[in-house]
Amino acid sequence: VNKTYSLVKVQTQNTVQLTKLTEVLCREKQRSDDLIYKLVPADIAKKLKNHITVTPEIFDSVSVLYADIVNFTLISSYHSATEVVNLLNYLFCLIDKLTDKYEAFKADTVGDAYVAVTGLPTCGSKATSESVTNIAHLALDMLGQIQNLDHENESMCEVKLRIGLATGPVSVGMIGMKIPKYCVFGETVNLATAMEERSQAMRILITNYTRNFLADTGIFET
Length: 222
Known about the structure:
By secondary structure, this protein is α+β, with helices and mostly antiparallel strands. It has helices at residues 2-39, 42-49, 72-77, 81-101, 128-147, 154-157, 187-198, 208-217; strands at 57-69, 105-110, 113-118, 161-175, 181-185, 203-206. 28% of the residues are buried.
């Protein structure tokens, strides 16, 4: 009887341990899935999870937002590295929430620059007019967030964005093996960058093609 009891006790303990290990594995898998879905569009994440090759694609009409901080080099020169990193992290986290709100994909961050796109079918296929509307709302809300930053914080007070928008064809695809990245390329990205470079502090400069779409909505003044 004692041997039987001991065997049952061991089996019970093993079952409990196995259950706990299974729960830990499920949590870790969920964390891994959540990370993948933050880094790439949902359709691409599903392909990666199923070990399906992600081939490059071309989309005819995608809206690109390119933004950066005005005088970032000057601001960085009289703040510590920690303060600069904290500033960028705080600002980009605010913008990340807005990209979710407007179904945009965070394509890249390079230094103080932030790149987002709307209209990629892999992000949830949208008609061009809706994707352009979403990117415009995103840009306006970004400026609104900057205006509402904590003005008691000196470094936050200095932050001003300059934004460029463009709409047109882009190429997309996974780049790299060690830290693969879903990248957006093409003349439309270059145009958005050029618009940003020619824009002014707390202003949004857009291409004529983007302007035509926005004018048709009757919502925006351009």
